[in-house]
């Protein structure tokens, strides 16, 4: 959903796409939207920029990309703002679930490795001087004595 940096030089030194660095006027210019629209989207929960200690909004590159996506969904696809909010929520949920699956996959791989090590340790502990003996089983059928009639 999110694109690359629209700035010719990229982001400020030490910043990544989640670093809130842009004031609202710059974010409005980068996203192609009016500053009042950005405030409205913030109030509706479509985009949640960072805040300064004084309460001023600071937008990250991820926020800018999300603003552009909100505009695209609204203008090109005709999705209303409630629908866009639901799409964003579902995309966030999918991302969280993908991350959880990744974590569980790593955990499972670790458990498999530990089980293989434990099995190897058991096999290594076998006594080499013992000889396996073939065991045979017998089947015994019990029949109660017949009662006289």
How many strands in all? Answer: 2
Strand residue percentage: under 5%
Shape, per Cα inertia axes: elongated
Specify Rg, calculated over alpha carbons: 32 Å
Major β-sheet annotation: 2 strands, antiparallel
Helix/strand structural class: mainly alpha
Walk me through the structure.
The chain is mainly α. It is 51% helix and 3% strand. The protein has 4 helices and 2 strands. Strands 1-2 form a two-stranded antiparallel sheet. Helix 1 (24-31) packs across helix 2 and helix 1 (24-31) crosses helix 3 (61-75). It is elongated and about 100 Å long. The N and C termini lie far apart (89 Å). The model has no long low-confidence stretch (mean pLDDT 88).
Quick synopsis:
The protein is built from 4 helices and 2 strands. By secondary structure, it is mostly helical.
Structure characteristics:
elongated, single chain, 149 residues, two-stranded antiparallel sheet, mainly alpha, 4 helices
